[in-house]
Design goal:
Elements: H1 7-11, H2 27-30, E1 36-43, E2 49-55, E3 66-67, E4 72-76, E5 82-89, E6 92-98, E7 108-114, E8 120-123, E9 126-127, E10 134-140, E11 146-153, E12 161-173, E13 180-183, E14 188-191, E15 200-206, E16 211-214, E17 222-231, E18 241-250, H3 253-267, E19 284-286, E20 294-295, E21 299-301, E22 304-311, E23 326-330, H4 333-340, E24 349-354, E25 360-364
Parallel strand pairs: 1-20, 1-21
Antiparallel strand pairs: 1-2, 2-3, 2-6, 4-5, 4-7, 5-6, 7-8, 7-9, 8-19, 10-11, 11-17, 12-15, 12-16, 12-18, 13-14, 18-22, 23-25, 24-25
């Protein structure tokens, strides 16, 4: 999955300079720049294509993207015929996707966008390129952190410009397993159905950094030990079991140069304007007004992917733990209602029942009991081993 790059934060409006002692409002902020931002890759084959549309905003308006909803996004062939229609995803407004496209290497395509405000945008011709397979995805733990890297080569020396994205998934357990559930509607505590367990989850997130490299200065088109992800020591991701799916794409030189400028901007946090708009000429344009600024560079390529798994036992000592405390809740209506009902802070979830001199429930806070609180889902991914 192509994950959107926070271009609007990087370029014009939302680069924050925390080191500055005096507030500085550059002229471009006052001009209310409402530029369309287009981010994505046209992917050939069975893998999905996702194009994200958003708008720039002022620094004073915050750093949240203004998504562009309700647009028409299509892929055209070299003759201007529409061959694919991308649908806006209900789960991600502003993201337009399609499950797969049959694109032909060497052929050119265009991305056409029509927004709700009546404007039309078109890309320059985009040549679809093949992508060499990933040789390997490996990891090392030289000291405390875990570093994941990729190796690739093109024996025909035709690639030269590479881009990577990744999807990472990790399996984790909440420290405590809840055997009971509070039925707030009936003000009662009931045994939890084993099928409704909430202590075992998987969470997935996507790369946000620009991962690019070029072999143009070398005689051989070989990528060696390109770092794609570093997991800090003790991080949540490797608390139990971790998997990463690395995706490799081919860029053209113009696309590589464009992304390299964006990468430089993002890394130079001490510079308010490391790159001016004139340096960021993309390949998307207003169909009627060529003077309108549009941010983004769309490329088209095959994708090559490879997945690896890492067990916590392979990286010990790791140092991850989640400290959680329990409390005893007496088995009486007032205590149960006070501690288990929604709205109480902190709210507790019943774990086990103790039948003794004083009967009641051991309980823990939701973050220590319900793994979904930490962003995961209880459904096991199909690829999980």
């Amino acid at each position: 999955m192509t994950k959107r790059i926070p271009i609007l934060i990087l370029l014009f409006c939302t680069i924050s300079v925390l080191q500055c002692r005096e507030k500085y409002d550059p002229p471009i902020i006052d001009s209310n720049p409402d530029f369309l931002v287009v981010d994505g890759i046209l992917v050939g084959g069975s893998d999905s294509t996702k194009i994200f549309l958003s708008r720039t905003r002022k620094l004073s308006e915050g750093d949240t993207s203004i998504v562009e909803k309700g647009a028409s996004v299509v892929v055209q062939d070299a003759n201007g015929n529409t061959i694919y229609l991308l649908q806006e995803l209900s789960s991600s407004p502003g993201t337009y996707g399609i499950a797969g496209m049959d694109l032909i290497a060497g052929n050119s395509y265009k991305l056409r966008i029509a927004t709700l405000n009546g404007k039309s945008y078109i890309s320059d011709p985009i040549i679809f390129k093949n992508t060499p397979v990933i040789d390997s995805v490996n990891w090392i733990k030289p000291e405390k952190d875990v570093t994941i890297y990729v190796n690739a080569k093109d024996q025909q020396n035709n690639t030269r410009y590479y881009r990577w994205q990744y999807e990472e998934t990790w399996e984790y357990y909440s420290p405590y397993q809840s055997g009971y559930i509070y039925d707030q509607a009936n003000d009662d505590v009931l045994p939890r159905n084993p099928d409704d367990s909430i202590n075992h989850c998987w969470r997935t997130q996507y790369s946000r950094d620009l991962l690019i490299a070029s072999t143009e200065k070398f005689s051989d088109d070989i990528v060696i030990n390109q770092v794609v992800r570093t997991i800090p020591y003790g991080a949540f991701e490797l608390g139990n079991k971790y998997s990463i799916l690395v995706k490799q794409y081919t860029l053209n030189k113009e696309g590589f140069d464009y992304l390299q400028i964006l990468k430089r901007v993002s890394e130079q946090s001490n510079s308010l304007f490391s790159a001016q708009p004139s340096q960021l000429a993309g390949n998307i344009h207003n169909s009627v007004d060529p003077n309108e600024t549009v941010i983004g560079y769309i490329t088209a390529s095959q994708v090559s992917s490879k997945r690896i798994f890492i067990e916590r036992s392979e990286v010990e000592p790791w140092g991850y733990s989640l400290a959680c405390a329990t409390r005893f809740v007496p088995d009486n209506p007032d205590s149960i209602r006070f501690y288990f009902q929604e709205g109480h802070y902190p709210q507790y979830i019943p774990l086990t029942y103790i039948n003794g001199i004083t009967s009641g429930y051991f309980a823990a806070e939701p973050a220590c009991t319900d793994c979904r609180i930490l962003g995961g889902v209880t459904r096991k991914p199909d690829f999980w081993q």
